Amino acid sequence: MQMVRELRELGMLKTTDLHALASYCDSWAEYLLLCQDCRHEDYTTNGKVNPLYTIRDMAFKRWVKMASEFGMTPAARMRVQMVAVTQGTNTKSKFFAQ
């Protein structure tokens, strides 16, 4: 899986992250299966949203949450960059008195 390779190369994937990675993969697989099921179902049933669509949306939200945990959403990448920039500007304070 390319994502695993990239996370490992960036030093963002450790053995302790395997459960979180499994959750990421499970939620993505669940979302894809539910998308296929939704293709054969109406969005509404008796004037209410079909529960299958609600479950699909919940799976997608779980996937987005896990993706952000690994820095794989635009917002998560921005947070990582902001931390890196902030840490970079504080480097001088380690060596020089304020």
Can you put this structure into words, describing what you see?
This protein has 98 residues and is mainly alpha-helical. The protein has four helices and two strands. A hairpin with a 2-residue loop joins strand 1 and strand 2. Helix 2 (18-38) runs antiparallel to helix 3 (51-69). The chain starts with a helix and ends in a 9-residue tail after the last helix. The relative contact order is 0.10. The mean pLDDT is 83.
List its salient traits.
mainly alpha, 98 residues, 4 helices
Number of strands: 2
Work out the radius of gyration. Answer: 20 Å
Overall mean confidence score, pLDDT = 83
Largest sheet: 2 strands, antiparallel
| Poorly predicted parts | none
Strand fraction: under 5%
What's the order of the H and E elements? HHEEHH
| Spatial arrangement of strands, main beta sheet | 1-2
Number of helices: 4
Distance between the termini: 47 Å
| Net shape | elongated
Secondary-structure map:
Blueprint: H1 2-9, H2 18-38, E1 44-45, E2 48-49, H3 51-69, H4 74-89
Question: How would you briefly describe this protein structure?
Answer:
The chain has 98 residues and is mainly alpha-helical. Helix content is 65%, strand content 4%. It has a two-stranded antiparallel ribbon.
